[in-house]
## 1
Amino acid sequence: MFTAFLIKYAEIGIKGKNRHLFEEALAQQIKYALKRCEGEFKVTRTQGRIYVDALSEFDYEETVAELKTVFGISGICPVVYAEDEGFEKLAKRVVSYMDEVYPDKNITFKVQARRARKNYPMNSMEINSELGGAILDAFPEIKVDVHNPDVLLNVEIREKIYIYSIEIPGPGGMPVGSNGKAMLLLSGGIDSPVAGYMVAKRGVKIDAVYFHAPPYTSDRAKQKVVDLARLVSRYTGPIYLHVINFTDIQLYIYEKCPHDELTIIMRRYMMKIAEKIAKDTECLGLITGESIGQVASQTIQSLAVTNEVCTLPVFRPLIGFDKMEIVDISEKINTYETSILPYEDCCTIFVAKHPVTKPNLNVIKRHEKNLEEKIDELVQTALDTDEVIVVNWEK
Ligand code: ATP
Ligand code: MG
């Protein structure tokens, strides 16, 4: 029965001139999400609102599900249109709307009319009371409650007349593309896909980098990361996933540095390489799935030592989250099942029995001197052989 959706957005973010950019980005993301749905749609922006009109048959459930993935949307209101063919017809249409949408009439309601077109022959107060009266006449059980109604029935008089009363919550946040771009360090674990989702929710476009160490990590482990990127791209739009061959760097560190410092030194090189790619691709920050104290390389001391190689800001949206809280989000965004597949990631292969938990920057730097001979060349080769996979959500 619904033929359109009114899209509500709450947070304009930075106001003023940016409002226009925000709305443009939101309309863009809505179009991207709708491309995945059956049917044809038109997205219009008018007077601080966005409408999605169905131009053909469409699948209501599917369309709502896709709209729920668009950051920036606070509410999705399914709308019924009525032509302006006089008040009698409108009253009939409104009564039949109530009948269809609320089979159980043991409810309270209130009509809220708005005239976007002032030449309509009745004012809002008159429309409210006349339509309210028509509904009361039609359904004896129904009651009016002007303060706290179960159903707030909106009737907007525009070129056509818009009727709606349902608001389905959207994901909130800000539209992707309204707040620049950042580079996500994406592993096959639970945390980093969630970290990418959370930063994207604030309007940031996402690229990703994965450090692959064949043959120590398998093709399946790489495929798992591609699959995770695809799941995340449902919310973020297309992701450019950089796959960096990290094997020689890892082996070289393994050969030249104390094994209890292996992870931390490796993490420093990951950050360095990620930052290099980020700067080459107009990313304004890095994103990781780190959380304080979760593992040895995520103590505050370790984070400080890792952070030291970067000049770009490093966003760690999960920094204060417990594992269970992260798992909850990963289930909600549907990455959990894929994240827990058992394929090894490149950190787990070389882990020391007793990794340092309080690394000292000077000591680490001293040991990194052992790498001087070949490391620059190895990093350069890794960058030169960057494999870029464009990942896009499909069902
Ligand atoms: P995750 O669940 O995201 O894998 P984790 O708990 O396993 O995190 P670590 O392995 O210490 O933690 O990694 C910390 C962060 O470093 C990850 O969240 C991710 O952002 C990044 N990272 C780790 N390994 C890789 C990798 N192979 N490629 C890209 N990024 C990685
Ligand atoms: Mg991991």
## 2
Amino acid sequence: MKKYIIALDQGTTSSRAIIFDKNKNIVEVRQKEFPQIFPKPGWVEHDPMDIYSTQMAVLHEAVAAAGITSEEIAAIGITNQRETTIVWDKKTGEPVYNAIVWQCSRTSAECEEYIRKGYGKTVREKTGLLIDSYFSATKIRWILDHVEGARERAEKGELLFGTVDTWLVWKMTGGKVHVTDMTNASRTMLYNIRELRWDPELLELFGIPESMLPKVCTSSEIYGHYDLPGEGTEVPISGIAGDQQAALFGQACFESGEAKNTYGTGCFMLMNIGEECRISEGKLVTTIGISLKDRVQYAVEGSVFVGGAVIQWLRDGLQILEKSSDSEAAALSVADNGGVYFVPAFTGLGAPHWDMYARGAILGITRGTTKEHIIRAAVESMAFQSMELLESLQDESGVSIDRLRVDGGACANDFLMQFQSDICGVKIERPEIRETTALGAAYLAGLATGFWGSLSEIREGRKIETIFEPDMDEEERAQLAADWKKAVGRTLDWAK
Ligand code: ADP
């Protein structure tokens, strides 16, 4: 009798395994951190063997702790840090270099060169992305150009490329299966999101042999099987999605106009825009949102660099908070922000401003300003930045929304959620299960094996914990939004 689905959540700083039962209750969670490697300023690497070994360790530990056997496991789903690039030897399975992590900016100069030569438009039209070192293409190229003999071996068909999902499946199937899913493929800057295939012109442009690339599948199908050590029962691996798309799915954003925002260290907002590929013209990216056998849906995506991290800074940097969660009571202890605005542009500003020279500022301070006003302004900054994302998402996609689904650590803050609802004039829906990324991977794996029957079964089974409704008069809302924008204006171009 199949009773469980396991989600493997391979993140940037840790690997996690979460066991769900049929009612989507979490039965067991195990987590392991692994080393971050910083060979030079701005460079970030992981050891691919650490990624694999921590991921398998938490899987085995979770299964043992739950006291279940592989016969009871219906399927395994994988969600992963996106864009991170691994190249390995097809025969030996040895990586030829460390994993180059999404955050790594070693190829910024090459990207600027591609932009200078005018390739931005072609890349945007085909992939929905902006040319940036963040995406995999120039990372693969870097490995081929800098590891001795790598390009030659790649051209002879001896090397394989994969994002983290691909690497895990290849290892878990003993080198039999070399696949990825469309959501991960759409972050490589090599995948044509209109034609749903690796794009020959882009492979040529970035100098990447097609033989290295994995087969691209949907996010919900049986790719291969994993044999839990000593058990002899093969468990299907049947779901793959990049972390943000997994969260979109875990939040059941199955229709155009449904959107989610994740409040973690940064904030990530994705909106399903349906089956027509509309490439965002401005400063957001278009990506594959959902990929199932009978539907491919696109999403627009925007992110802010400093979300919950501003609260961490108040706690660890300024030391005016003991715990992040104390920010809620502090914010509520004052009637309003007292005219104080906190723009946390610590490393510049992301969407929609894209100003790497912006720097943080606290504005509007008077003699009456207290530490609580500053804390409140910091919490409000997460909502104001998300408001700007939401405005851009709606403007660029032409799709408007009336509710936003939320997850991530800081969505526990009721004051923040109410303020978000007020400032955007939309309903905020907070689910009971906040592990939406893992849940999304579990749903995808469970749908492929019939563990869960349909999207509507998933949608109907969703439990919403709280709905926050807008409750602010329009004049006040407009004034706050205008003052925020004025504050942002004062931080732009600062460090130039
Ligand atoms: P990540 O997955 O990016 O590491 P999490 O989803 O765990 O992040 O969220 C943690 C972030 O949310 C931290 O930056 C923390 O400061 C912030 N945070 C956590 N709880 C609260 C809270 N109650 N109010 C405001 N911020 C919070």
